[in-house]
Fold this sequence. Notes:
Blueprint: H1 3-21, H2 27-38, H3 45-55, H4 61-73, E1 78-79, E2 89-90, E3 96-101, E4 107-111, E5 136-139, H5 142-147
Helix pairs in contact: 1-2, 2-3, 3-4
Bound molecules: zinc ion (ZN) (2 copies).
One zinc ion (ZN) binds next to strand 3.
Amino acid sequence: MTDGQHLERRMDWFRQRCKRAGLACTHQRQVIYRVLAASESHPSPESVYERVRMEIPSISVATIYKSIRTFMDQGLLQQVNPLHEAARLDANLEPHHHLVCTACKSVEDLPAELIEAPRPVRPLPNGFRAREFHIEVLGLCARCAGKG
Ligand SMILES: [Zn+2]
Ligand SMILES: [Zn+2]
């Protein structure tokens, strides 16, 4: 499957999910979602805005934020780490981890099967119930490591 076909499949899936959720699948929402689905760099809302603006020059940042919020509420999008102050968005909903470069702040996908998820050896403190483990591997990407 080429990248283009892969993207079209993601867009078909998106339109079906919108329909099921009773969400209007407007041109604007489709352009925004396409930018997200085509990006592997886990963009911030600001960089999504920059890219969408090339197609829809009249769009506002507020509209981008609103759509992103709607997509997240509908489970069409997630955040790399919901507690990060700067949101990084992820349209890849397959279980996976992340490689985070501490120098250039790039975020790359790390397929779940490449790493063994941790298993607690004792019950977690205060009766905390784990739902999933999300691993962020911090380090230097090849480009930044090369510079040092
Ligand atoms: Zn880097
Ligand atoms: Zn990801």
